[in-house]
Amino acid sequence: MLEGKKIAIGVTGGIACYKVVTLVSRLVQAGAEVRVVMSEAATKLVSPLLFKEISGAPVAYDMWRGNDEFNVEHVALGRWCDLMVVAPATANIIGKMAGGIADDLLSTTLMACDKPKIICPAMNTNMLNNPAVVRNLETLRRDGILIMPSGAGYLACGINGAGRLPEPEDIKAYLDDFFAKRDGDLRGRRILVTAGGTREAIDPVRFIGNRSSGKMGYAIACDAARRGADVILVSGPTALAAPRNVTLIPVESTQEMLDACLTVYDSVDAVIKAAAVADYRPHEKAAQKIKKNEESLTIDLDKNPDILKLLGEKKTHQFLVGFAAETQNLIANAAAKVQKKHLDMIVANDVTAPGAGFSTDTNIVKLLFPDGSIKEPGLMSKEDVGNLILDIVRDQTAEK
Ligand code: PMT
């Protein structure tokens, strides 16, 4: 997302400004064009020469000493960039921006710039909590400036608390997300993804489950968010970390997954149901741990609701994608599910094939459509499978 983007970085005189050298380097490595504007205080902490070498471009910091690259520098920089970022943003620059003060090159550039702006506040915890700073940040938020939340941890003043400048990788990821929402090919789409396996409780310590790791669904959710979609991930228990920029709704049972899906169903443009859902649940959950007194144990099972079938019946505008986990008759079984569940597409995987199905990093899928057509892309990473599905979702849904 950062490739070819023009980013102006305003650096102010917070101790954390040394981290911005790494940020600039990461952005340049990602293909962005970066121009640095420094406050006078920042130049006392980090040499402009260092930023010049890392960004590969002249650094602006002196109102009165022109930079050959730009004519009327404070206006030209704002016109040149796609995005302006202030990192670290001290209480001082936040106050100036909120109060409309333009008394040096950075603050005048910020005022003249009509492009989106992101600030990364970083300061001592008491300063961050000071009512004036809280008020100024609120003003900036209302003015449409994006404020990246500061981190918590060890601060230069020797205490642990809120106010740390986020790590360069995290700021880079935040900028990536910004451009994904603005330019990604799934922007303006809201997509519901389900992942992982549901669990049906037998007693307080045991459950009926399956081998789903969640990797397939999480890969789709990550891909979709990276491409600018608004993603809701309803997930059974997994060992995976919550994906960035995705609304995660953790569930355990099939009924909980159904309830979560129904809550958001009307608002989504597409559903991708990669979750492995338990088809049956114990008729009764034992209140206490079942003791092993008998030679055999019989557990009566009741049929669970078929979530996807219910969504298919309620479908109005949603593009509905199911998965089919099969161990035999892959095409015939998957095709029957397309009809029975009113799907727009099914992703069939033979879960006994090496490199496919549960817990693997790869999958071998066949995409089946209601008109009987089939796509067979072969062995791919789960990420690539996700992107392939999402290409189709993009073409079948409209940006809102
Ligand atoms: O999580 P991983 O380890 O990465 O593994 C990926 C996967 C094998 C789980 C995934 O690729 C996959 O195949 N997911 C679907 C598993 C499944 O439940 O298949 P099914 O054929 O039983 O169900 C068909 C479809 O109906 C699925 O979209 C399923 O989510 C849905 N379903 C099934 C039963 C039910 N009661 N409600 C449902 O919504």
Indicate the topology.
Layout: E1 6-11, H1 17-29, E2 33-38, H2 40-45, H3 48-55, H4 73-80, E3 83-89, H5 91-99, H6 105-112, E4 117-121, H7 125-129, H8 131-142, E5 146-147, E6 151-154, E7 160-164, H9 168-183, E8 190-195, E9 200-201, E10 207-208, H10 215-226, E11 230-235, E12 247-250, H11 254-265, E13 270-273, E14 280-282, E15 301-303, H12 307-313, E16 319-326, H13 330-340, E17 345-350, E18 362-368, E19 374-381, H14 382-396
Parallel strand pairs: 1-2, 1-3, 3-4, 4-5, 8-11, 8-13, 11-12, 13-16, 16-17
Antiparallel strand pairs: 6-7, 9-10, 14-15, 17-18, 18-19
The structure holds ligand PMT.
Residues 212-216, 254, 273-277, 279, 304, 306-308, 322-325, 337, 349, 351, 357-359 line the site of ligand PMT.
Task: Please tell me about this protein's structure.
The protein has helices at residues 17-29, 40-45, 48-55, 73-80, 91-99, 105-112, 125-129, 131-142, 168-183, 215-226, 254-265, 307-313, 330-340, 382-396, and strands spanning 6-11, 33-38, 83-89, 117-121, 146-147, 151-154, 160-164, 190-195, 200-201, 207-208, 230-235, 247-250, 270-273, 280-282, 301-303, 319-326, 345-350, 362-368, 374-381. It has 400 residues and is of the alpha/beta class. It folds into 2 domains: 4-180, Rossmann fold (3-Layer(aba) Sandwich), CATH 3.40.50.1950; 184-395, CoaB-like (Rossmann fold, 3-Layer(aba) Sandwich). The strands form 5 sheets. An 8-stranded mixed sheet has the order 12-11-8-13-16-17-18-19, sandwiched between helices. A 5-stranded parallel sheet has the order 2-1-3-4-5, with helices on both faces. Strand 9 (200-201) and strand 10 form a beta hairpin. Helix 1 packs across helix 9. The radius of gyration is 26 Å and the shape is elongated. The active site is at residue 157.
